[in-house]
């Protein structure tokens, strides 16, 4: 039995009496009731206002604001915007509907998450919005998997050099123009540069047409017959001079 007095009736407690203890203050069970409806608190749940205890229903009716989003009473954390009250979960971006969690900007007078506001401004200014940092792209953009990005967010997958807006996508990776050409285009066996147009296929290699030439006189074959010796191509004149009459040809035509 406690030696203190009931906070309401100021009477003592009998031996073996069940005493209510809330924050170090004691009540008889019959005295521990809502100050408004004088009913016991359901499951012991109560709300305080200016030192007085209320059941949830009376507390909401007397003091709790109504959420402008769902129309229900707000108990706990409140967001305020334009003199309206909101549950945190109801205070959402007016464009995408995601919770704002207190971080927002005003766009056309409405609470808007930063990505949506940036996207709206980008559209209004006919600019792209970076899919990584959600900032407007003021210069040339890089496109990756159909989305625009600032080029400085990426390095070449092969050489690891910073990329520019001219980067190319291949097999879900980004490459600088040089590395992309080496992967995607045939490389001339003579100059070692990518072949973007017509290519000559000969000696199990690819050539620019102007670079597929006699190994001795360096005159391009330009569709004429050539003769092979030890992996080298020769025109008929210099093949005969160097190796004699070609009584057999390992390779005499190309395409």
Computed structural class: alpha+beta
Count every beta strand, where a strand is a DSSP E run of 2 or more residues: 20
Query: Could you spell the SSE succession in H and E letters?
Result: EEEEHEEEEHEEEEEEHEEEEEEH
Oligomer: single chain
Helix content: 10-25%
Q: Radius of gyration over alpha carbons?
A: 41 Å
Mean pLDDT across all residues, rounded?
84
Silhouette: rod-shaped
Tell me the number of helical segments per DSSP (H or I, 4 or more residues long).
4
The percentage of residues in β strands lies in: 15-25%
What's the end-to-end separation, in Å? Answer: 108 Å
Describe the structure.
The chain is rod-shaped, with a radius of gyration of 41 Å. Strand 17 and strand 18 form a beta hairpin. The protein has helices at residues 56-62, 114-124, 177-184, 236-243, and strands spanning 19-22, 25-28, 47-49, 52-54, 79-81, 84-86, 105-107, 110-112, 128-129, 136-137, 142-144, 147-149, 168-170, 173-175, 186-187, 194-195, 200-202, 205-207, 227-229, 232-234. A two-stranded antiparallel ribbon has the order 1-2. Strands 3-4 form a two-stranded antiparallel sheet. It has four helices and 20 strands. It is an alpha+beta fold and 255 residues long.
In short:
The chain has helices spanning 56-62, 114-124, 177-184, 236-243; strands spanning 19-22, 25-28, 47-49, 52-54, 79-81, 84-86, 105-107, 110-112, 128-129, 136-137, 142-144, 147-149, 168-170, 173-175, 186-187, 194-195, 200-202, 205-207, 227-229, 232-234. By secondary structure, it is an alpha+beta fold.
């Amino acid at each position: 039995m406690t030696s203190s007095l009931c906070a309401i009736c100021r009477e003592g407690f009998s031996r073996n009496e069940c005493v209510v203890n809330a924050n170090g203050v004691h009540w008889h069970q019959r005295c521990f009731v809502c100050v408004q409806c004088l009913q016991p608190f359901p499951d012991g749940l109560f709300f305080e206002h200016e030192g007085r205890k209320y059941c949830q229903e009376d507390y909401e009716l007397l003091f709790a604001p109504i959420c402008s989003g769902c129309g229900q009473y707000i108990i706990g954390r409140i967001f305020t915007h334009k003199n309206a009250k909101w549950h945190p979960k109801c205070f959402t971006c007016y464009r995408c509907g995601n919770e704002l969690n207190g971080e927002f900007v005003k766009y056309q007078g409405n609470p808007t998450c930063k990505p949506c506001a940036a996207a709206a401004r980008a559209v209004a200014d006919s600019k792209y919005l970076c899919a990584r940092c959600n900032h407007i792209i003021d210069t040339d953009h890089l496109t990756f998997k159909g989305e625009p990005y600032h080029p400085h967010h990426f390095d070449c997958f092969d050489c690891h050099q910073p990329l520019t807006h001219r980067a190319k996508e291949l097999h879900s990776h980004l490459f600088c123009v040089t590395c992309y050409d080496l992967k995607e285009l045939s490389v001339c066996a003579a100059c070692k540069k990518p072949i973007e147009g017509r290519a000559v296929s000969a000696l199990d290699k690819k050539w620019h047409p102007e670079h597929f030439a006699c190994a001795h006189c360096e005159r391009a074959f330009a569709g004429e017959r050539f003769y092979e010796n030890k992996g080298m191509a020769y025109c008929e004149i210099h093949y005969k001079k160097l190796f004699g009459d070609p009584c057999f040809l390992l390779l005499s035509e190309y395409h």
